[in-house]
Design brief:
The complex is a heterodimer of chains A (156) and B (274). Chain A is mainly α. Chain A has one domain (24-155). Helix content of chain A is 93%, strand content 0%. Chain A has helices at 6-136, 142-155. In chain A, helix 1 (6-136) packs across helix 2 (142-155). Chain B has 274 residues and is mainly α. Chain B has one domain (58-139, 147-269). Chain B has a three-stranded antiparallel β-sheet with strand order 2-1-3. In chain B, strand 1 (20-24) and strand 2 (28-32) form a beta hairpin. Chain B starts with 7 loop residues before the first helix and ends in a 5-residue tail after the last helix. The chains are: A mainly alpha (156), B mainly alpha (274). Chains A and B meet through helix 1 of A and strand 3, helix 3, helix 4, helix 5 and helix 7 of B.
Amino acid sequence: MNLNLTIIGQAIAFAIFVVFCMKYVWPPITGAMAERKKKIAEGLDAADRAERDLRLAQEKAADDMRESKEQAAAIIEQANKRANQIVEEAKDQARQEAERIKVSALSEIDQEVNRAKEELRAQVAVLAFAGAEKILEASVDQKAHAKLVDKLAAEL
Amino acid sequence: MASENPTSSEYISHHLSNLTFGNHPVNGWSFAGGEKAAEMGFWAINVDTMFFSILTGVFFLWLFKKVADNVVVGVPNNLQNFIEVVVEFVQDNVKSIFHHNNPTIAPLALTVFVWIFLMNLLKLIPVDFIPRIATELGIPYWKIVPTTDINATLGMSFSVFALIIYYSIKVKGIKGFAAELSLQPLGKFFIPFNLFLEIVNLLAKPVSLGLRLFGNMYAGEIIFILIALLPFWIQWVLSVPWAIFHILVIVLQAFIFMVLTIVYMAMAHDEHDH
């Protein structure tokens, strides 16, 4: 209970401990804490920013999606229209072609008929001559009666 | 007093005596305790107090230095986490009380808090353990808790007092400090009266600071010693609740010492309006 030199010894020890703490202990620990605080603040900031960016990107993506859907719909519609048009054109062409083929076939048939008639006419003349010869039992002067026979054939 | 069957009062006074080394008028340079230590006068030193206070102080600085050397900004390990909690606690207290720019105050507060806490903590070692071992080793006295020695607490509180004076003069100048001591609270016509009041006020700071810590720790120690006088099979009924209660006292006294140190430093830095 008696005051003695210990009081001074304790004061010296105290001073040394405080100086040591001030020089070697306090600065690194508080420095690291401050730096970590800063980093965490930055991290939270970055997270906020990232969230905002994400939201913007999502909105943009949704916009793009909608736009491309609209475009796709427009393209499909156009394509359908064009396809119908092509089909219609093809039908028209086919009809015209059919018409043309029909017309040419008819004209060919006409020609064939005419040619057959001509042939028939020629053969009728020959047959008439042969029949007349048989009937008359004599030869008919072809040159003399040719005019008559042609007239007959023309009447057929 | 290290006899085989001491009486109660011998036992108590033995446990409250420091091992003192000094020049005894009769025995010369020697170790002593109790009455003989008192006879050595001022030029003697309490070896046990110095030993344990330096041991705890070195442990504190070793532990914190170890963390400070391996400090990481990223995810801290458990030890660093714990140390940072302590440091942040002290830092918050300093920030809320001390509004000036002085890089010494926070480390000072940390040292005060942790060192006093560790010295107080020694008290939770049962009172007989270490003195008994010391007795077996032939050391007659060995008080382990430095804060139950008034020399230790006054040593610290007067160091704080020296800092109060130093910063008062550094911040306000000798004239400013003298004016603070002499011109309030009653103005310049009452200078002797003011001076008397202010000097008492100033001196009361370290004395109360040191005596508060000493008184709390010493009283607690006496209770532990009294409990230790009971038969060994019943001691735990009292010593366990008292020890649990003392966990609170230990932290609280360290905290009070720290906060008052910061407050006194803040007062030394405050400029008064004259």
